[in-house]
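Moderator note: this is an archived Q&A kept for reference. The question asked for a predicted structure of one protein chain; the sequence and the answer are reproduced below.
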Amino acid sequence: MNMRKITSMTMLLSLIVLIINSIVLYVVPEGRVAYWADWRFLGLTKEDWGAQHTTVGFLFVFAGLLHLYYNWNPILAYMKNKARQIKVFTGPFNVALAITVIFVVGTYFHIPPMSTILEISGHFKNAASEKYGEPPYGHAESSSLAMFTKREGLDLETSLVLLKSAGFQFGDEKDTIKEIAATNEVAPQVIYEAIKPATIQAAAPAPGEPIPFPDAPQAGWGKKILADVCAEYDLDVNEIVAAFAARNIDANADMAIKDIAAGAEMEPMQLFEVLHEIVNNSDQ
C-alpha cells in the first residue's frame, strides 16, 4: 500500500471533517444555553462536536507530520533561492509568515477583519440565547431538584407533585435536573417549565416602592443595557454612570453590561458586584 497516498487522503478527509466541525462550533450556542436547552445538531450535542473537533484535529496533525516526512525534499526546494541554497526567509515563506502573524496578532487585538469574524460568531450565539432561553444560573442543570427549587424560590413538595402529574419519571429530590431530563428524554429547560408554577410568591413591594436590587444577577445579565437595569430597579442612570466614573469605569446609559465590563477589564459578574456596592452605599 502506498503510504504517501494514504497520508494525503487522511489529511484531506480529516480536513473536511474539521471544516464541518469548525462551522458548527462557530455558530453553536454558548455552553450554558446548549446544555440547558439540550441543543443538538445532526443528533450530536455541543460536547460531541467539540470532542470530534479535538480527536480529528489530532488525526490531522499526525497525518500532517507524516506528510511533512514524505514530502521533505519538495518542502526544502520551496526554501531554496535562485542559487539553489537553502534560505528560510524566502519570498513565499515571508508572505506566509506575514499572513499568519496578521491573523494571530489581529485576533489578539481585535482588529478587523478578525474581530468581525468573532462578532459574527457572537451574533449567532446571541440569537441562540434569545431562541432557546438562558438558564436561571450557570450550570443550573447540574443542581439537584432540592437545590434548584431552593435557589429559584420554588416549593419543593409542589414541584414534586407537578413533575409526577406531568408524567415525568425520577427518583427523589436528590436527582439533578439534568438526570431527570435525561431519564425523560427532554431538555432541562422543559423540567424547569413544568415546575415553574411552584414559585413561592414573595411579598410584593408596597405601591410606589421600587423593586429591591437583587443580591445575585439574573440570567442574561451581561446582555442587559445599563439604562434598562436602572429603570427596572428605579435607579438614576446618571448617578450610576457618575459612580462608575469615580471608579474609573467608562459607561453610558446605552451600553450593554458586558461591554462596560470589558472596557474596565472585568467580568460582568464583577461589574454586578460593583453596582451592588454602589446601590447599597446610596441607600445608607
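Archived answer notes: The chain has three domains: 3-132, 147-198, 221-283.
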